[in-house]
């Protein structure tokens, strides 16, 4: 069978041949036409009515010139159609490539969102544990102070029982170098 390029090459020739054949049969002699009929029962037909049924002189391009021009225009449009089809194929290929990349990117985006949510949950859990640790350390300090105070009171009682003298001094009077 013929390919698209073969059809495009033969198309202007075929169109030109068909147009020439169509216009070749239309060349009748151009006369004024038959004389108006005058029957006894019929009225004569005016000449302007007869003239409208006959071809007038061409006022522009001939049939050959029109056919050549149409075949040129057809060839030009056929070339443009081939170029547009090639562009369409290229765009379809590019579209398919971009669709594949989009699907891949969507998968990566979904995975990244999931990892981000997991990291966010981990940070929230770590912050909660840090706050708990802070409260435990502060509570442990108070427990240590209470334990040391209890030890000092027990030591004071032991010293008092042993007969030692207890002086109560403040931290400033015991250490004059401190402000």
For the sheet with most strands, the description reads: none
Helical run tally: 4
Q: Which value, in Å, is the CA radius of gyration?
A: 56 Å
Secondary-structure element string: HHHH
Question: Which stretches of 5+ consecutive residues score pLDDT under 50?
Answer: none
The structure class reads mainly alpha
Shape: rod-shaped
Calculate the mean pLDDT score and round it.
Answer: 79
Helix amount, in percent? over 70%
Cα(first) to Cα(last) distance is 112 Å
Q: Which range does the strand content fall in? A: under 5%
* DSSP summary, beta strand count: 0
Polypeptide structure, described:
By secondary structure, this protein is mostly helical. It has a domain of 87 residues. Helices cover 73% and strands 0% of the residues. Helix 1 runs antiparallel to helix 3. The chain is rod-shaped. 1% of the residues are buried.
Quick take:
This protein has 179 residues and is mainly α.
Layout of helices and strands:
Blueprint: H1 4-24, H2 47-51, H3 63-162, H4 171-174
Helix pairs in contact: 1-3
Q: Which terms would index this structure?
A:
0% strand; 4 helices; single chain; mainly alpha; 179 residues; 73% helix
